[in-house]
Amino acid sequence: MSKTILYARVSTAEQTVEHQLAQAKKAGFTIDQVITDNGVSGVSTKLMERPQGKRLFDILRPGDTLVVRWVDRLGRDYRDVSDAIRHFMRSSVVVKTVINGMVFDGATRDPIQQAVRDALIAFMAATAEVQAIATKEVQKAGIAATRASSSTAYRGRKPSYDRKTFETVADLLGQGAGASAIAAETGLSRQTVLRIREDRAGADKALVIWGL
């Protein structure tokens, strides 16, 4: 009997398995099993090198569905994400994303549909790598800001967002969402979203300085 498995990678304290599971259910998925990697960086660790990520290659069977919040959960860069999706498709496993409802199915034999699917995989994998690089740069900027600031320094205006909301905005920006749509999704003002988009490192620095 086929099953639907949610793979959740949780790399920070602000992310939770419960949140990703709730998002999947809200999107209409019925999840039979959840596989989780905790405290694993998607920027530096391949899917096959993660303790639970490698389990996916053993437990998924033809006809199963693998659900992920977004394709960046499946690898650290373009090659890793692309290889993972193609491996599962060759194994007759359907890969679906919670965000935007993308479906990657190896069953199609129509040449046009295959071409569109393969082009979409390439685009999504490239987008995931760009987002990973941006996240890495933001993390570097945050560390530098922490070292440069002191407890007596002027901290500026307190951000109207927390770390979890900031990461959500960063994810949506990486997926090409507009400022108005992101504002509606997160409850932030459009102006705040635009400030984060224009100076992501500065927005992250503000969170670090305020300890949020």
The arrangement of helices and strands along the chain is EHEHEHEEHHHHH
Q: What is the total number of structural domains?
A: 2
- Let me know the largest β-sheet: 5 strands, mixed
The main sheet orders its strands as 2-1-3-4-5
* Structure classification: alpha/beta
Question: What is the fold-level CATH name, i.e. the topology of the largest domain?
Answer: Rossmann fold
Strand content: 5-15%
Radius of gyration: 18 Å
Number of strands: 5
Mean pLDDT: 81
Which homologous superfamily in CATH is the superfamily of the largest domain?
A: Resolvase, N-terminal catalytic domain
What percentage of residues falls in helices of 4 or more residues? 40-55%
The low-confidence parts are none
CATH architecture of the largest domain: 3-Layer(aba) Sandwich
Per CATH, the class of the largest domain reads: Alpha Beta
Counting H and I runs of at least 4 residues, what is the number of helices? 8
Write the topology of this structure.
Layout: E1 4-10, H1 17-26, E2 33-38, H2 53-59, E3 65-68, H3 78-90, E4 94-97, E5 103-104, H4 111-148, H5 163-174, H6 179-186, H7 190-198, H8 200-210
Parallel strand pairs: 1-2, 1-3, 3-4
Antiparallel strand pairs: 4-5
What does this structure look like?
- With 212 residues, this protein is of the alpha/beta class.
- It has two domains: 4-110, Resolvase, N-terminal catalytic domain (Rossmann fold, 3-Layer(aba) Sandwich); 149-210, Orthogonal Bundle (Arc Repressor Mutant, subunit A).
- The protein is built from eight helices and five strands.
- It has helices at residues 17-26, 53-59, 78-90, 111-148, 163-174, 179-186, 190-198, 200-210; strands spanning 4-10, 33-38, 65-68, 94-97, 103-104.
- Strands 2-1-3-4-5 form a five-stranded mixed beta sheet, sandwiched between helices.
- Strand 4 and strand 5 form a beta hairpin.
- The radius of gyration is 18 Å and the shape is globular.
- It starts with a strand and ends with a helix.
